[in-house]
């Protein structure tokens, strides 16, 4: 069954390869009525006049003065050095004003060698992304292929929804992949070869669902949890490790801790300050690279809630008396202490009076 499947997939693959190479050879850049020129090169536009001796007139976008070119004896238009400014429609007419030929001239550059980066978000698939290194001004396509252990080339699949990217499915570990990203346009082609093992390009997606919570009665602690990136298959062989970075919102320097768990307790948070936290992931055995940092989470360690309540009570009282909260504030914070002191001294006074009364009563009795 499985051998049938592999056989079938081989056949499919072979068909795909032949289909692509056929489409490559059949897809030339020759479009009807379009001529491509390289910046700085000479270009000759043919008029196709039947009798070579006839006098013809060339027009550029309708106007008859073409200072950058001259008409040959055969009626062709010679442009000794073309640039982007001479792109446009060229048409040649005979003496009676009849259109003989019309052509669109496009001018640009040959492809440069594209810059390519490949990344595996897990151990089963990887993608390569590329950028052209030259703005060629011309229609461009990319031929993307790879060889596994120097076997026959296979296609790295491109997806119209993600331009400048191709993907390889079911990639194998400990095998050498040789990518060939070729940029092609009507003036030529340029390729870049990249050779690697999948484990060296592994870079997980950032961990997800990061959350941080205060721990009751622990003013310097935060409980942090997160989850594996959804793109990382949960398999016992391929674990991730994590690093957590955190700082108070108002500080610049991060503190970092590394862990293999999906949770951690920060024990050196700043009391009463809001903290920013982020987490990133890497293959447990240090293959490849750290992921990007996750989205931020924010949290403030637990703070005693009694003080703020009494402060607000007192400030309510004072605002009814005097509408100047800013001046009152420092005073307010001392007030509860004064209240307590007053209560205590009243209590002591009452106690003393009670004792004196009791003593007098005892004496009289
Ligand atoms: C490989 O990529 C495809 C398409 O992106 C996805 O459907 C598949 O789940 C991936 N395989 C693994 C094992 O992640
Ligand atoms: C890369 O691919 C292009 C286009 O298919 C091909 O012309 C070129 O020879 C390849 N280069 C290598 C080194 O395989």
SSE blueprint:
Elements: H1 2-26, E1 34-38, E2 43-45, E3 57-60, E4 70-71, E5 77-79, E6 88-93, E7 99-108, E8 115-119, E9 126-131, E10 141-148, E11 154-155, E12 157-159, E13 162-168, E14 176-185, E15 188-197, E16 208-215, E17 218-227, E18 240-248, E19 255-259, E20 263-266, E21 275-283, E22 297-299, H2 306-321, H3 325-364
One 2-acetamido-2-deoxy-beta-D-glucopyranose binds at residues 143, 145, 180, 182, 191, 193.
Q: Main attributes?
A:
365 residues; alpha+beta; Immunoglobulin-like; 3 domains; four-stranded antiparallel sheet; 3 helices; binds 2-acetamido-2-deoxy-beta-D-glucopyranose
Beta-strand share of residues: 35-45%
The secondary-structure class comes to alpha+beta
The gross shape turns out to be: elongated
Overall mean pLDDT: 81
* Largest sheet, spatial ordering of strands: 1-7-6-3
Structural features, described:
The protein has 365 residues and is of the alpha+beta class. It has 3 domains: 2-27 and 113-201, Immunoglobulin-like (Sandwich), CATH 2.60.40; 40-108, Sandwich (Immunoglobulin-like), CATH 2.60.40.10; 208-299, Immunoglobulins (Immunoglobulin-like, Sandwich), CATH 2.60.40. Helix content is 22%, strand content 36%. It has helices spanning 2-26, 306-321, 325-364; strands at residues 34-38, 43-45, 57-60, 70-71, 77-79, 88-93, 99-108, 115-119, 126-131, 141-148, 154-155, 157-159, 162-168, 176-185, 188-197, 208-215, 218-227, 240-248, 255-259, 263-266, 275-283, 297-299. The strands form 6 sheets. A 4-stranded mixed sheet has the order 1-7-6-3, with no helix packed on it. Strands 8-9-13-12 form a 4-stranded antiparallel sheet, with no helix packed on it. The protein has a 4-stranded antiparallel sheet with strand order 11-10-14-15, covered by helices on one side. A hairpin with a 2-residue loop joins strand 14 (176-185) and strand 15 (188-197). The N and C termini lie far apart (113 Å). Residues 122, 124-125, 169, 233 line the site of one 2-acetamido-2-deoxy-beta-D-glucopyranose (NAG).
